[in-house]
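To illustrate the input format used throughout this study, we show a single complete record. The first block contains the structure-token representation of the backbone; no residue identities are included at this stage. The design step must infer an amino acid for every position from geometry alone.
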């Protein structure tokens, strides 16, 4: 799949003139989720991760994204769900995290991306009580589109400042130099990945 800009992708979905929020939908452990496209920078194929010791279990590793070390979150583990085995359709959604003063790109690992959908606010209901199966503070609502429910992700909670600060401190610890060296020497940058690389800006 060749590179595609956000404008081209939205145009392909026929959403250029729409006024309601638009969401990238994706599958995770058999369920469909949505994420506001304003938070998304690009999508890359999964692979070439370097594991980082002493990080939370939901941190899959780090990648070299055009020379920058980017942590990758296993979103299924972050939600407290059983992760799906990695397949050829597994990909990483690059989102904007951190703070305005200290921005930090974050990779979010998903099973497969689906489509960009326009979802009107009146079609979104408050999140139900999922019990112990999922953390509801990570969810902004449930959208009903064409008879199916889409779980809308609250990105600012999944990628909270405190969590990202802890991750950043670990990555930039005394081991950072060796991690960066390993990533730079063993992992090809994702700038021209042949399979995905949908650019969202």
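Output of the design step:
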């Amino acid at each position: 799949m060749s590179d595609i800009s956000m404008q081209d992708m939205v145009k392909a979905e026929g959403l250029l003139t729409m006024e309601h929020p638009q969401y990238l939908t994706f599958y995770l452990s058999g369920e469909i989720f949505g994420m506001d496209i304003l938070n998304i920078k690009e999508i890359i194929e999964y692979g070439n991760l370097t594991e980082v010791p002493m990080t939370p279990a939901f941190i899959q590793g780090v990648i070299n994204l055009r020379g920058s070390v980017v942590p990758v979150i296993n979103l299924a583990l972050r939600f407290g769900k059983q992760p799906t085995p990695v397949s050829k359709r597994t990909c990483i959604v690059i989102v904007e995290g951190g703070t305005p003063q200290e921005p930090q790109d974050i990779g979010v690992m998903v099973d497969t991306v689906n489509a960009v959908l326009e979802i009107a606010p009146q079609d979104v209901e408050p999140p139900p009580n999922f019990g112990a199966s999922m953390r509801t503070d990570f969810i902004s609502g449930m959208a009903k589109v064409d008879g199916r429910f889409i779980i809308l992700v609250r990105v600012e909670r999944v990628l909270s400042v405190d969590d990202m600060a802890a991750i950043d401190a670990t990555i930039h610890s005394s081991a950072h130099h060796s991690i960066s060296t390993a990533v730079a020497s063993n992992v090809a940058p994702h700038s021209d990945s042949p399979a995905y690389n949908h650019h969202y800006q």
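Structural context for interpreting the output: Residues 6-196 form a domain with the OB fold (Dihydrolipoamide Acetyltransferase, E2P) fold (CATH 2.40.50.180). The chain has one domain: 6-196.
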